[in-house]
Amino acid sequence: MNEALSRLKEMDTEIQHLSHIEALLSWDQETGLPPLAVEERSRQLSLIAGLLHDRITAEQAGELLAKIPAPEGLPDADRAFVREFARRYDRKTRVPKKLVVELARQGALSQNRWVEARSASDFSIFAPSLEAVVSLVREMASALGWEEQAYDPLLDEYEPYMKTQELERIFAAFLPRLKGLVARIAAAGREPDTAFLSRSFPLALQEKFGRQVLEAMGYDFRRGRLDVSAHPFTTKLGNADVRLTTRYNPEYFNSGIFGTIHEGGHGIYEQGAGAGQGDTLLADGASMGMHESQSRLYENVIGRSLPFWKYFYPRLRELFPAALKDVDLKTFYRGINAVRPSLIRVEADEVTYNLHIVLRFNLEKALLEGSLAVRDLPEAWNQQSAELLGLMPPGDAEGVLQDIHWCWGAIGYFPTYTLGNLYSAQLYAAMQRDLPDLEKEVAKGNLEIVRAWLAEKIHKAGRLYPAGELCLRATGEELDPAYFMDYLEAKYSEIYGS
Amino acid sequence: MNEALSRLKEMDTEIQHLSHIEALLSWDQETGLPPLAVEERSRQLSLIAGLLHDRITAEQAGELLAKIPAPEGLPDADRAFVREFARRYDRKTRVPKKLVVELARQGALSQNRWVEARSASDFSIFAPSLEAVVSLVREMASALGWEEQAYDPLLDEYEPYMKTQELERIFAAFLPRLKGLVARIAAAGREPDTAFLSRSFPLALQEKFGRQVLEAMGYDFRRGRLDVSAHPFTTKLGNADVRLTTRYNPEYFNSGIFGTIHEGGHGIYEQGAGAGQGDTLLADGASMGMHESQSRLYENVIGRSLPFWKYFYPRLRELFPAALKDVDLKTFYRGINAVRPSLIRVEADEVTYNLHIVLRFNLEKALLEGSLAVRDLPEAWNQQSAELLGLMPPGDAEGVLQDIHWCWGAIGYFPTYTLGNLYSAQLYAAMQRDLPDLEKEVAKGNLEIVRAWLAEKIHKAGRLYPAGELCLRATGEELDPAYFMDYLEAKYSEIYGS
Fold first, then answer.
1. pLDDT score, position B1
2. Residue B222 and residue B88 share a domain
3. I need a surface site. Which of A65, A283, B239, B409 has the fewest CB within 10 A?
């Protein structure tokens, strides 16, 4: 059995290296690929994807896994390794290669149609493509197999081991409180000043400030780098090579800085997971939701907190005297935390953001179950938008066509954004219990205290435990959305006096 | 046979993609790899090197090649394809993997010793390592096989199809004339003013000017990019992705600009070869010597010519008014062409440069034949240095330890630098015959005329013909070093009045 395990580890090492190489090809594509090289790059990426698929689904892997019948007898790390190797092997071998190829092909076509449809603000252009994709995704769900709900195996891709029913329970538990808070904020009649956020913020200075914050957060530039791309992302090219990208808008403050802090949270997680779990498949985030908890904890819970800006605001003001000289700390703090229901998810504040996710989750489930037809999607979207956000999209572009995710069949992904918010608040509450001086330290610019706690409780475990178990180990409780609502209510009742 | 050929082409496509992926991994390592990621990157590179080796030496490739017994019947491009595929297959299968691995291992060790030895300026620290490397290189030569000289199969790695005897004939043909020219220049008693070259040339402006020149040369930025690295190089990540790097010295003019132009010459060659020969092993330079002819033609024959600077000097002066306001065109031209025998090859002018190469070639051959022992190398070096350059290195660091090439066993590489110089002059002479207005056009900034001629005569052929045959096709004659000497004598008798 030991020999089988060592052989699996060797196979995994090669898989890790190949996936890091794939990550470099993609990173380079987003940060610096010459414009005419796009097609060639996609062929290079296909080649690596094929090599990866062959290795992940190798018959030999199945044979070796069969030789390790009782992982219970193994040490924690080995047990988790076998569990995750088998999980990857099972998921990849269950789906016929033909289906994978067809979904990739339809995904690419579908993306083109989506671009067209969005620019014409006309869902009917996209509908036939999306119908094909949804049908393939249902096939995929069947191939993966499920017992309770067809949504289960899709959610499981992004949030391993979580069931849809649990997600529904969690969403149901916070939705009424969230709606109540949104209503109280709207009724408060206060409108924070946000005009100053649209003054001039030169790019180079935004970058300089972003790097200062990343350094303070403990992102290790000796094992990473920061670049610019159209859409910010974090990617892992190796345990000692976790790269961030961001983008800057010279006339809107929030995009650059909070984008940088957000990716910094992801990056620190990956750097810590690699440090804890070596060069194996365990050196990764526990789930998308747990990953998102790290980015959102830094971006929102800390990065939009008063203690954080007590330290950083004077430094920021020094860099942007023209834009900020007449803006005091309190005004700044309220401005970056303004709550306003909006049509577009990616522009939403941390309160109403989750309503956008509930909307998408409801529709995805209905599509998958067949209770909603693709052609009826715009109407259903608008109805949900009116109900949840109190807003009616003026056209499909501002409604059902705003996100790219469904083009690729990435159904089951959206909920992890809200799971991230929920985890982040619960983790922060636990951190506060463990570190009574936390806010005082943050107000002195000591963010290392945050990183060290997260490294110990979350990062170094990598994928050793499913996200739910990791949450339990780190906070003493299973995921409880009350923490997030407590956090939001305390913060926004102060800001809005509601 | 057609089926065998198609299958070989498919195999080659995958080999091309993998080698482009390898190129990205290396490019990224030189331009932006986080410092702590070096070891991981080397493991990723080894993985790709292994995949490449398996594919290049695949048994199936040998079987398919055997099914194409008479490539003479094929169209030119297919015949060349089979010839080059077979050549690569033969060379890689002849050398036992054990020897390749051992040479790579010794090479890495040897490089560390070389760094130590150089910083102590003490060859004896490096000698045992170099002995091991030379012994492995001899094994390599035996494995590859040779009839006339052991140097043949090594030279053939860099300058395919050229024999050592031919190289000796060529070197012998120009050496007396070259020595004569160097002596006349020394005797002329003129010393061009070069002090202005060490004034302040801000990096960003050097880059701006370099990009202007590259654009004028016809380097296509939509299919490439320019970055900074410690040692300038050109690399191909795809037919539509040929990247250059350069470096800038803010206090010495020549490094940045001429380095950029040099790499631009390589880059334009690769871009043109890819345009002509698709995504196959033919889309590459014909040989290292032919490659170097393109970089040196642009760097020296054109880039250090009076017509070129007639156009570009006013533009350069606008960018660097402080450094160049009191320097007229003629002074500038003479300054960038100053000839002065020096100890260090990479700092040498285009005249004495070739003496450095003759020195290395003589020693490499003697080492390989066994007529020179590694331990006697410093003495032999110094003796040759005195004889050829009239200079005695004050220590090993400025003599035998100055180049890194031998660490890796790259014996046979140096002569291609001089071959590049020789080819460049002969090509330029042919270009002048074909384009009577060449210099007038260059003086108007029309470098497109140069690129178009080279594209037609050299670039688009890729590896369709061996370098020697390509030279014959492009110029009507076999390589004749008299062109290079004619070029040098005309240029430098004007500058030195000798």
1. 63
2. no
3. A65
Query: What's the rounded Cα separation, in Å, for the pair B91 and B156?
Result: 10
pLDDT at A72: 73
Q: Looking at the DSSP assignment, which residues form a beta bridge with residue B228? A: B246
The pLDDT, as a whole number, for residue B312 is: 98
Question: Annotated catalytic residue: which of A22, A84, A159, A263?
Answer: A263
Phi/psi of residue A380, each to 5°?
Answer: -65, -40
Q: Is A186 helix (H, G, I), strand (E, B) or coil?
A: helix
- Contact indicator for B267, B234 with CB cutoff of 8 Å: yes
Which pLDDT tens digit goes with each residue over B51-71? Answer: 999 999 999 999 999 998 776
pLDDT value of position B274: 83
Which pLDDT tens digit goes with each residue over A66-86?
998 776 788 989 999 999 999
Residues forming beta bridges with residue B227, ordered by sequence position: B245
Q: Are residues B315 and B259 in the same domain?
A: yes
Residues B454 and B74: their CA atoms lie apart, in Å, by 26
* DSSP class of A302: I
Please indicate whether, in this complex, the C-beta atoms of A44 and B17 are within 8 angstroms of each other: yes
Does residue A177 share a domain with residue A74?
Answer: no
Residue A468 tokens read as: 């739910």
Q: Cβ contacts (< 8 Å) between B43 and chain A: which residues?
A: 17
Q: Are residues B230 and B311 in the same domain?
A: yes
According to DSSP, the β-strands at B241-246 and B234-238 are: antiparallel
Q: Are the CB atoms for B81 and B281 separated by under 8 Å?
A: yes
In whole angstroms, give the CA distance from residue A255 to residue A394.
25
Residue type, A36: L
Closest by CA position to B274, among listed B466, B460, B18:
B460
Q: Does the beta carbon of A10 lie under 8 angstroms from any beta carbon of chain B? A: no
The DSSP letter of residue A70 is -
Q: Is-contact A245 A226, C-beta < 8 A? A: yes
Select from B32, B34, B240 the Cβ nearest to the Cβ of A34.
B240
Counting as low any pLDDT under 50, the low residues of chain A are none
CA distance A160 to A87: 9
Distances (CA, A) of A455 to A431, A451, B466: 12, 6, 59
> Does the CB of B50 have a partner CB in chain A at under 8 Å?
no
Do A262 and A374 lie in one domain? The reply is yes
Residue B481's alpha-carbon distances to B232, B354, B492, in angstroms, are 27, 12, 17
Q: How far apart are the first and last CA of chain B?
A: 62
Q: What pTM value is reported for the model?
A: 0.95
First to last CA, chain A: 62
Same domain for B141 and B192: no
Task: Give the β-pairing of A226-228 and A241-246.
Answer: parallel
B150 and B168 assigned to the same domain: no
ipTM score of the complex? 0.93
DSSP state of A398: G
Q: Per residue in B209-233, is it b (16+ CB within 10 Å) or e — as a string?
A: bbeebbebbbbbeebbbbbeeeebb
Q: Do B144 and B190 sit in the same domain of this protein? A: no
Give me the residues paired with residue B241 across strands: B238
Query: Positive or negative, the Cα torsion across B295, B297, B298, B303?
Result: positive
Q: Give the domain CATH number at B387.
A: 1.10.1370.30
Task: Print the domain residue range for B18.
Answer: 2-157
Which of B51, B223, B237 has its CB closest to that of A36?
B223
In this predicted structure, what is the pLDDT of residue B2? 85
B237 in reach of chain A (CB within 8 A): yes
